[in-house]
């Protein structure tokens, strides 16, 4: 699951994505930090592009949750107490 | 006129003396019936084919009695239902006066095995036709059997008329006889309107209350219960002079609908001009206001993609170039959401649009606008009127890049579905849900059938998460979204019957496909709740093909698989033969145990549906481990809403 999630995150900076969905590496980089299985989303802005960074971080969180919903629903049941119904 | 209960001490009017009088008069008749039965009995042990009595052949040609006074309250109520265009009644025996009076009006009436699935059938009928239908149960258990189905209909905002008998006022609080209970408190919170009707002089007036609620504003179930005094034996009315408020429907309600404020329309157009990636989310209000043509015109002129949501699908065609219903990957990009007729509102984030997304909500009732999601603009209007005004006022626009993004997301979604199918075909010792979903979709939409023909009752839990991805709606009411919002998994065979009757009658948008077979999807858990209605479909010759995903377990099993003290709660015996149940009830059955058997079985069922008008069950033998992604990818799937996967909102 983690491997797939990392691949998904890396895909968020690919050239083919529309600009509003892409994290432009010239403006910011995103990675996961894995501390003994506890994963954090890390976004580092370049220069002072903080508005860009905050917007991207929020939208990325939104998308990652959607990705988990579609592909790893049982994980959300177990770890986040999402309704099993 | 002497009343039968005059000498009775019993609140229901049955005295010992009266009984003896009636019994003596009926004795000869009873003896005759038994004699006939003995004369026609068959030989012990001989093969007895399943057959339906000739009464069913007589329904179509039966004369409709003329309504005349004196009449019972039930007759007056039924007459009002007829004049309001009540499209069908689904019931079980009980509530005899109301049911018989409605049948005597020529309103198509169907009797099933359990009031719950019959109520679900009525709900599904309404969801795919937009016409008002009724469900009936008798007092006490007959009524309470309908509770779950009423709650589901309420969550779907279905204009469903629920009628039930309820003993007599004279017997209230006595516990005399059986089946006593106050019904209205039991539907508190799951209806739009309800009333215990106790006065025969006001029956017509309360029919007016009911249809005002059913046909105005945001719809919802209406629950009327009738006492013997209002609609039973004691409810005789000599003439219309005995009836209060005996007005025609044109006098007790209006078809006038609110039109949007031109200032709001202008503001909406300015917001659309500012947006880069607008999306119209068209929900049940678009369907119930029959606004699908106005929706298409507005979307095309403004070049705005549309995702539909709701308890039915198809008010915007999945085949349209602007359809976003099968483009879940594009949902995150939306910067302006125009929610129209979304009576069941998601909370913020459940539709995962861009975090800076702006919202326009178009709804007929101001009281709800702003609930759950903060709005940037609210427009109070009937959906049809609002779409008409918007289509007229908006200049032709282009959103080429956004429309291309939606198209790419559609392609990506299909590619993902194809991947699932390819993986599913690799599991050869059972039938994977991706195989069922894909091959059903190929049969319905890519084979010999017109793609807009077949109406589907889309249900099931785990299987539904695969089939929703592949089911398509090319015209209004083509999909009944079974579990919508309330999340019942059991009513699917009832829903199949309702969709089948809608198709049988050619009601509402089903008219061009009148008589076509319908398809339903359910799970092994769900089938158990309403599977007896296969018999109901067989006796009425409703050709539904019910696909049962049989994985020997509830969909919840995987979460408890490793707990030896709890896992059994989620398990059934393995390899159960739901197909044999169908055969035993007069339907056809297929047992499918490998992927390559599914499509041939589906074709055989279709032939039987077309040629014999019989229902079928395709029992697809799967395995519960398919929900464990680690061992059998892709495992249990989730969904993104709005669009084809939606069932929460």
Give a written overview of the molecule:
The complex is a heterodimer of chains A (85) and B (649). With 85 residues, chain A is α+β, with helices and mostly antiparallel strands. Helices cover 47% and strands 19% of the residues of chain A. In chain A, strand 1 and strand 2 (38-45) form a beta hairpin. The two termini of chain A are 23 Å apart. Chain B has helices at 16-40, 55-58, 73-83, 96-104, 115-129, 141-144, 147-155, 203-215, 228-231, 249-252, 262-274, 284-288, 292-302, 383-393, 400-425, 433-445, 462-470, 492-505, 524-530, 533-539, 578-584, 598-612; strands at 89-91, 109-111, 133-137, 160-165, 193-197, 222-226, 278-282, 306-308, 312-313, 336-340, 358-363, 377-380, 456-458, 479-481, 518-523, 544-550, 588-592, 616-621. In chain B, the strands form three sheets. Chain B has a seven-stranded mixed beta sheet, with helices on both faces. Chain B has a six-stranded parallel beta sheet with strand order 2-1-3-4-6-5, with helices on both faces. A five-stranded parallel beta sheet of chain B has the order 8-7-10-11-12. The longest helix of chain B is centred in the middle third of the chain and has 26 residues, at 400-425. Chain B is globular and about 70 Å long. The A-B interface holds A 18, 20-21, 55, 58-59, 62-63, 65-66, 68-74, 76-78, 84-85 and B 276-277, 328, 331-333, 335, 349, 352, 354-356, 401, 405, 487, 556, 558-559, 627-629, 634-640.
């Amino acid at each position: 699951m983690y491997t797939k999630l990392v691949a998904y995150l890396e895909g968020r900076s690919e050239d083919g994505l529309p600009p509003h969905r892409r994290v432009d590496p010239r403006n910011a980089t995103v990675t996961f930090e894995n501390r003994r299985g506890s994963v954090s989303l890390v976004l580092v802005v370049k220069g002072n592009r903080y508005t860009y960074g905050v917007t991207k971080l929020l939208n990325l969180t939104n998308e990652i949750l959607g990705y988990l919903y579609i592909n790893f629903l049982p994980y959300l049941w177990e770890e986040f107490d999402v309704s099993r119904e | 006129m002497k009343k039968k209960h005059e000498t009775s001490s019993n609140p229901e009017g049955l005295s010992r003396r009266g009984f003896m009088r009636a019994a003596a008069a009926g004795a000869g008749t009873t003896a005759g019936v038994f004699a006939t039965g003995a004369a026609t009995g068959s030989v012990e042990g001989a093969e007895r084919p399943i057959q339906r009595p000739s009464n069913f052949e007589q329904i179509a040609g039966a004369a409709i009695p003329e309504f005349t006074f004196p009449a019972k309250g039930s007759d007056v109520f039924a007459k009002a239902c007829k004049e309001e265009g009540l499209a069908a009644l689904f019931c079980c025996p009980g509530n005899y006066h109301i049911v018989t009076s409605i049948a005597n009006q020529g309103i198509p009436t169907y009797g099933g095995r359990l009031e719950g699935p019959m109520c679900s059938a009525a709900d599904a009928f309404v969801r795919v036709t937009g016409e008002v239908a009724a469900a009936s149960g008798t007092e006490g258990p007959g009524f309470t059997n309908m509770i779950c189905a009423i709650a589901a209909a309420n969550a779907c905002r279905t204009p469903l008329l629920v009628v039930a008998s309820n003993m007599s006022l004279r017997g209230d609080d006595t516990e005399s006889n059986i089946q006593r209970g106050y019904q209205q408190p039991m539907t508190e919170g799951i209806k739009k309107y309800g009333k215990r009707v106790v006065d025969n002089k006001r029956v017509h007036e309360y029919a007016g209350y009911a249809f005002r609620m059913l046909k105005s504003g945001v719809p919802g179930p209406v629950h009327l219960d009738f006492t013997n005094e209002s609609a039973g034996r004691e409810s005789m009315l000599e003439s219309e002079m005995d009836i209060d408020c005996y007005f025609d429907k044109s006098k007790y309600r209006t078809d006038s609908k609110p039109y949007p404020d031109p200032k709001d329309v202008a503001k909406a157009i300015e917001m659309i001009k500012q947006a880069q990636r607008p999306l119209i989310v068209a929900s049940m209000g678009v369907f119930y206001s029959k606004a699908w043509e106005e929706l298409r015109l507005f979307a095309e002129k403004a070049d705005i993609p549309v995702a539909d949501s709701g308890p039915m699908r198809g008010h915007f065609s999945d085949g349209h170039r602007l359809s976003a219903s099968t483009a879940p990957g594009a949902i995150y990009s939306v910067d302006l959401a125009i929610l129209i007729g979304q009576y069941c509102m998601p909370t913020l984030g459940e539709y995962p649009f861009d975090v800076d997304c702006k919202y326009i909500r178009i709804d007929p009732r101001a009281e709800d606008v702003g609930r759950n999601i903060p709005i940037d603009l609210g427009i109070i209007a009937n959906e049809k009127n609002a779409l008409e005004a918007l289509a007229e006022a908006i200049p032709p626009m282009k959103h080429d890049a956004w429309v291309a993004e939606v198209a790419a997301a559609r392609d990506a979604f299909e590619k993902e579905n194809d991947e699932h199918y390819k993986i599913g075909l690799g599991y050869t010792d059972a039938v994977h849900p991706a195989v069922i979903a894909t091959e059903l979709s190929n049969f319905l939409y890519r084979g010999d059938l017109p793609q807009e023909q077949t109406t589907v009752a889309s249900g099931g839990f785990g299987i539904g998460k695969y089939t929703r991805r592949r089911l398509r709606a090319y015209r209004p009411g083509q999909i009944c979204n079974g579990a919508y919002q309330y999340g019942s998994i059991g009513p699917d065979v009832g829903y199949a019957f309702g969709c089948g009757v809608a198709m049988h009658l050619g009601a509402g948008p089903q008219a061009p496909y009148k008589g076509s077979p319908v398809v339903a999807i359910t799970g092994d858990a769900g089938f158990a709740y309403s599977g007896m209605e296969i018999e109901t479909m067989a006796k009425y010759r409703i050709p539904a093909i019910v696909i049962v995903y049989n994985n020997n377990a509830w969909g919840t099993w995987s979460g408890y698989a490793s707990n030896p003290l709890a896992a059994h709660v989620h398990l059934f015996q393995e390899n159960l033969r739901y197909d044999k149940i169908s055969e035993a009830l007069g339907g056809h059955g297929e047992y499918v145990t490998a992927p390559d058997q599914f499509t041939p079985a589906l074709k055989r069922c279709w032939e039987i549906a077309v040629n014999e008008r019989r229902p079928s069950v395709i029992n697809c033998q799967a395995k519960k481990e398919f929900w464990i992604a680690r061992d059998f990818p892709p495992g249990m799937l989730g969904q993104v809403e709005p669009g084809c996967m939606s069932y929460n909102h």
